[in-house]
Design brief:
single chain; 424 residues; 16 helices; 33% helix; globular
Length: 424
């Protein structure tokens, strides 16, 4: 059975002479599991259920108690028939409480940015090559078939073999059209860039007809969620990321997660390499600075994506980042896409806090074991005032799992309990 991690904790902060405590709830990897999400809402001690929701398609809307905060740890879609519903509720809560609801982006969230490019008619006419599948014949049977291409993308490249039928079930429950073409169009419309949402035609008009499947308040919900989210959040002495903070996240020069050359991306978004390099040299080893840079890159990538700056050019037709990968690709949102991947094109593990984890599987025995953060990683985190890391990504139970480090750091992954943390 799939499960999500959920926990509550109290964080304290000093403001003047007053000592404040706040309750922070954490839930992650719902992945469209509507039943689990409903159970979580009912048992949560920080959320409230209020009648007469507006624009959510439900009889109730979520509220957040005073003095409480919610951190959603990423991966909101893919494995259940509640993708749209859960997204609507999280985003409605985020809009009502923008400073007390925090979204951490997961790999299943980020990879949906691929769909706008890969479901162009020009791309569907070609073999569906992606850099992490070496067999060029894989998916050849989907050429010219939009629905089959999407099913192949979900099954072979996103680890979501049942997502298509889950979406059909959700559309049916919401009273929306749910033919094969309608289901396929809904995937594009859910991640529709802002610049295309007010058009008369669906972004899938080339192969699915111009009529929209999703009503206006649902269009682009996943893109809005990505724009509102962060790659990392530091709340006092606690760091939230989707995957993990391990030595592999530290680059050759000591930067945390992404080289400044990739951050600047040739200055195309107004951040020149010299500025990045200066900050990198003067603040190297500062985890807070590097994570701020990551979040800034995410902001810039989502701005590009929502404006479709590159896609307006004819050269964007028939091109997608997934074919060759890299941080230098011109597709809108490509740096964020690459950062959400486990490997870069040459087969070397990607330096990412999104796809990393604290599990190690022995290639000879197949047994899994836990790998606490190393002394070097703990030193880097503690130097920046981080004493605890909370992650999701690979669920393995119903309660937070505590992974203490011998070097003075707690890592809370999905499942088990720790002192000061109560399961909801």
């Amino acid at each position: 059975m799939h499960a999500v991690a959920y926990s509550e904790s109290e964080l304290s902060s000093d403001t003047g002479n007053k000592h404040h405590r706040r309750s922070v709830a954490y839930v992650t990897d719902v992945e469209g599991n509507l039943n689990y999400w409903e159970r979580y809402k009912k048992m949560s001690s920080v959320l409230t259920l209020e009648a007469n929701a507006q624009g959510t398609g439900t009889a109730q809307q979520l509220g957040l108690k005073d003095g409480c905060e919610l951190v959603y740890g990423g991966d909101v879609v893919d494995r259940g028939s509640g993708d749209i519903t859960v997204l609507m509720e999280i985003m409605a809560l985020k809009r009502r409480h923008p400073h007390r609801v925090h979204i951490i982006l997961g790999n299943r969230d980020i990879n949906k940015l691929r769909l706008i490019a890969e479901l162009q008619a020009d791309m569907i006419a070609q073999p569906p090559n992606v850099y992490w599948i070496r067999d060029p014949s894989d998916g050849m049977e989907t050429c010219g078939k939009a629905v089959e291409r999407l099913k192949w993308i979900l099954r072979r490249t996103m680890g979501a073999p049942d997502a298509f039928e889950h979406r059909r079930a959700e559309l049916r429950r919401l009273g929306l059209p749910c033919t094969d073409v309608d289901v396929a169009k809904s995937f594009m419309e859910l991640v529709c860039p802002a610049v295309l949402r007010d058009g008369h035609e669906s972004p899938a008009a080339e192969w699915g007809g111009g009529k929209w499947v999703l009503p206006k308040h649902m269009r682009g919900l996943l893109a809005d969620y990505l724009a509102a989210g962060q790659l990392a959040l530091i709340m006092e002495d606690t760091l939230f990321v989707h995957g993990a903070c391990r030595d592999e996240n530290i680059g050759a020069g000591g930067e945390f997660g992404m080289h400044p050359f990739h951050r600047a991306k040739y200055g195309r978004d107004g951040v020149d390499f010299a500025t990045e390099l200066f900050g990198y040299m003067t603040k190297r080893g500062d985890v807070r600075y590097d994570l701020e840079c990551l979040n800034r890159v995410k902001e810039l990538e989502m701005q590009d994506y929502n404006l479709q700056r590159y896609a307006v050019h004819n050269s964007a037709r028939g091109h997608s980042w997934a074919k060759n990968g890299s941080y230098e690709d011109s597709q809108d949102g490509s740096r964020l896409l690459q950062y959400g991947m486990g490997w870069i094109p040459n087969g070397i593990p990607n330096k990412t806090v999104v796809y990393s984890n604290y599990f190690h599987k022995d290639i000879f025995t197949g047994k899994a074991s836990l790998l606490p953060p190393s002394r070097e990683m703990v030193t880097a985190l503690r130097k920046s005032g981080v004493r605890r890391v909370i992650v999701g990504h690979q669920p393995n139970g119903d309660a937070p799992l505590v992974l203490p480090s011998a070097y003075g750091m707690d890592t809370n992954g999905p499942r088990s309990s720790r002192r000061g943390c109560t399961g909801e």
